[in-house]
Amino acid sequence: MRSQLTRRVFxxxxxxxxxxxxxxxxxxxxxxxxxxxxxLPAVSYASRRSLFGFSRKPPRQPKAPDLEPGMKKMAExxxxxxxxxRTANKDDMLKAFNExxxxxxxxxxxxxxIEAGHALRTLKYLVSCGLGDGHLKDFMTAxxxxxxxxxxxxxxxxxxxxxxxxxxxxxxELSGSNENAxxxxxxxxxxEWGWExxxx
Length: 200
Known about the structure:
This protein has helices spanning 2-14, 27-55, 71-82, 90-107, 113-129, 136-145, 155-174, 180-189, 194-198. By secondary structure, it is an all-alpha fold. It folds into two domains: 2-53, no CATH class; 71-198.
């Protein structure tokens, strides 16, 4: 009997339960202790899931394409023109126009046909507002940017180049000096698309 009791005590100690006596009053406490032990892994599991949930990286969002300086303003103006919205500010549009073409000249990157379309609408608006010969240098910079031929369609590109060419000639005449116009005319006639600009 003593050896049996000793074995029960050792088993209880090894299982971290101590001595469990066959008493009805101790049964609920023993049962509750076992239930609590069984419940611990579930609580720990829920905590781990919550922790991992918070540490998850948010899904990647598509990055908006980077626009050239001044292009955002001209693209917005194109949209406003299509929906017949309020007219833009002349000075703001002239600044955006000059920033865009100066950047193109500095980086030696071609003006694609979509960009040329937005710039063409901006140029038509600026011409309608009336520009003096003080903007001749700005238009010459823009025309210089168009010497690099884009690889896509060139319908708006050529129309923009043609309008710039005509405005440079007109502003040169207004200033009383035609020294710029002939040099540009000869230059563009020597290019592969210059004949399309100068005709008509």
